[in-house]
Amino acid sequence: FSTFDNLKWQTNQLTYRIENYTPDMSEAEVDDSLERALQVWAKVSPLRFTRIYSGTADIMISFGSRDHGDFYPFDGPDGTLAHAFAPGANIGGDAHFDDDEDFSFSSNRGYNLFLVAAHELGHSLGLSHSNDPGALMYPIYSYTDPRTFLLPRDDINGIQSIYGSNPDVDPNPDKPGPTPPSTPDACDPTLVLDAVATLRGEKMFFKGRFFWRSYSQNSQPELNIIKTFWPEIPDNVDAAYESLLSDNVYIFKDRQVWALSGYDVVPGYPKNLQNLGLPNTVKKVDAALYNENSGKTLFFVGEYYYSYDEEKKKMDRGFPKRVDEGFPGMTSKVTAALQVQGNTYLFSGPNVFEYNMRTKRQSRVLGNSYFLPC
Amino acid sequence: LPISPPTEEDEALAETYLKSFYNLTEETGPSVRRGPSQRSRKVSEMQKFFGLKVTGSLDTETVTMMKKPRCGVPDVHLGR
To answer: Which ipTM score applies to this complex?
Structure first.
């Protein structure tokens, strides 16, 4: 997180006023969105907000487009969505929303006003931008379901570094509140990846609502929110693999599978696991990989694995087999799988087990950092 | 794959973006400069903020990031 150095409100009792409305939503929806956005910050700090309907409030909220009376004109649809000013007199604390945008109340149509406002009001209270892609104060807009929104840990640390914690919340260890989401750390030695896949020479490492993207020319993998690339793909995926036959990446969650062609979601998905010929008893896939030596796709399900012939579009006979039958010494659960230059890598917890597919021998035990540098 | 050079539109977008969010100012003073231009330094600053490969030049990833919808507040502190 970062703050505007020493710009903060000298009181915790702040007033706000909604000066006008956007035609995109009802006034009640705007009121509700803005009130909930303020409560995001009130819940974790001593700040309290009172709405006034006339005169000058600490935080004046308005909708405007292009040149709207400050020296920072908006730019039309998309691009800049809104801006706000650090705490202070006059324009200080005010939040302006670009009315050339299409703001929405609950759906992910256009830009969700609650999410945009929660970010802008963070500025009104003294936070500047965070470079944590999972933080609310990250400058790029990304949609998350407002009904399940939880203020990320980075933002809580930020606002509490300025004003302290919420004195009205008794930290009752017997009834802990929901855990604030944190952004996964590639340097965490206990990191357990959800899934790993190649994509036309790149590699993708999935964790929670994020994925790291490592492409050869860039040593440092880039951390992204899954939904900023593919709004249709769920968080916390189970497995993923790239089929060199169809040039698609398949992503699995519970009984469903999505297909990506490059960075586009293939129409007609998600499909059901049974479309791949997996038996009805299989409720989820733990890991998947495409074996370019044999042209078969391997699906890891608990202690077993299935072999799928993509060309014939059916499961191979004689499966499932026990994992440690096909991969001697692999006794722990496979959580992700990858094939690179003829070797197979089975991820299990924070470890990576390298297998030579010809000799079927385990050649090395590595860590995540072998592929995902810290 | 060869990185396609930025289009004129990308260049203009980057200019506006860096002025808005990274305090890029008009170059003044002697045109002969040693070391990377102010523009290149600002591109590097933006790439570093977003965890992109720091090249100082407008590669595809950098231009893609500049096109994403965002907040209008600068990413670098401009004082008050």
So the answer is: 0.89
